[in-house]
Amino acid sequence: MPPRLGRTSRRLAHPGDPGRGQSIDSIPVVALDLETTGGSPVHSRIVEVAALRFAGGELRERFEELVDPLIPIPPEVSAIHGITDGMVRGRRRIEEVLPDLWEFIDGAVLLAHHAPFDFGFLAYERSKEGQDPPPNPILDSCRLPRRVFPGLTSYALSSLCAHFGIARQREHRAGDDAGACYEVYRRCVDGLGKEAPGARWENLLERHGPPLRFADFYAPWPDVPALRTLRRALRRSRPLRILYASSTGFESERWITPLAIGQYRGTVQVEAFCHAMQARRTFRLDRMLEVDAGPVR
Fold first, then answer.
1. Exactly one of 14, 172, 208, 275 is catalytic; which is it?
2. Contact, 139 vs 110, CB < 8 A?
3. Which of 167, 198, 216 is the last residue of a domain?
4. Is residue 15 part of a domain?
5. Is 172 among the residues known to form the active site?
6. What is the per-residue pLDDT across 78-97, written as a single tens digit (0 to 9) for each?
7. DSSP 287
8. CB-count exposure of residue 51 (10 Å: 0-12, 13-18, 19+)
9. What are phi and psi of 208, to 5 degrees?
10. Which one-letter DSSP state was computed for residue 23?
11. Minimal CA–CA distance to 114: which of 221, 228, 34?
């Protein structure tokens, strides 16, 4: 089940949004889908990105790429999307792919099915880059048909495709799912057009509700000494000692070398090499009781 957002902007006007009165068909739309190793951006990784850019109802550009997650893909997940470790080994890492994706989506309205899932992953990766969230409005092709075609038995993408007669060659692959997502969106736009010929951006939002934002996944970074110490260690690739409390309250001393610092659902997450485990692990800042720089013992 996709994560719920902590807060959602209620403003309909926002810098970078289509103007009031702009026809829906004149708005560039990028339909996006991700395939991942699991359900949480903190403990899972992206293995495939697909983004299809449409203008005037026509496909104009396609961005599709497999991604090396640097961790094994669980067999039960691979059985769903069909992506194996061998298919992604040696591919570009997500931090190498994202600059091209940010350029690809520039100036477009974004679209995804269960959008908080896909954009939760992307927002977490963006936070690790230390950049401001992109301004693009985000529409959800699961939310919109609920408002335009109420009463259907299911609004899962596969169910909507069956209802509307939308064909997919490879279910649960990012490119085909992004295309199906756009086709569902077009059915909704066509439905709006029958009710309000010449439907505009504001007519779309009246049914969809306020768009999601990348910023909805962020919270202000805490101004605390521990975070500053961690960032210095990250910049210098230096190890440090932490006293860490587990979810059950058990306290243990760890030596870690920070690899990335990000934010997910308002919680600062520190990805680090754990010297005791000799492996990459993720630690929550709010469970670090002490943070001290020093040599590894």
1. 172
2. yes
3. 216
4. no
5. yes
6. 999 999 999 999 999 999 99
7. G
8. buried
9. -75, -35
10. B
11. 34
